[in-house]
Design a protein that fits this description.
This protein is of the alpha+beta class. Helix content is 28%, strand content 26%. The chain has three helices and seven strands, in the order αβββββββαα. The termini are far apart.
Length: 137
């Protein structure tokens, strides 16, 4: 009986996570969350000199600068939150970065950055370099 109760609780928790998961797609330089436009993304190929994320109006809110990484070029970046004098170094791909921005509620509904959430993100990742650069999730 205890095993059955435990299994039911695990299944309930797992199903709740599936329901709350957000589907992210990036098409034609626009990131969509559950089919709704979220952010504009410049063409950020491995050799792109300029890379940025803009709100839907087109105002650049985040600049992304490639940092040297001889082992895997194009996987180590400085993410600069424009207007907040804040940046974070990360090993990350664009899809994961957009998911992180959404999950941490970095961008307000009006397309501006939320300073207190950016500050919290920087504190959370102060000594940690995120490294799912090989993952598309």
């Amino acid at each position: 009986m205890k095993k059955l109760t435990f299994l039911a609780i695990v299944l309930l928790i797992f199903s709740c996570q599936l329901v709350s998961a957000q589907k992210l797609t990036i098409k034609k330089n626009i990131a969509y969350i559950d089919g709704k436009e979220y952010l504009k993304i410049s063409d950020c190929g491995q050799f792109a000199e300029e890379c940025s994320i803009s709100n839907l109006v087109g105002k650049e809110i985040i600049s992304i600068n490639q940092l040297p990484e001889p082992a895997k070029p194009g996987t180590y970046f400085e993410v600069v939150f424009n207007g907040l004098n804040t940046s974070i170094e990360m090993r990350i791909n664009m899809k994961y970065l957009v998911k992180l921005l959404y999950k941490k509620n970095i961008v307000a509904p009006d397309g501006s950055l939320i300073p207190e959430n950016v500050k919290k993100l920087k504190e959370d990742y102060k000594y940690l370099v995120i490294s799912p650069a090989e993952s598309d999730d």
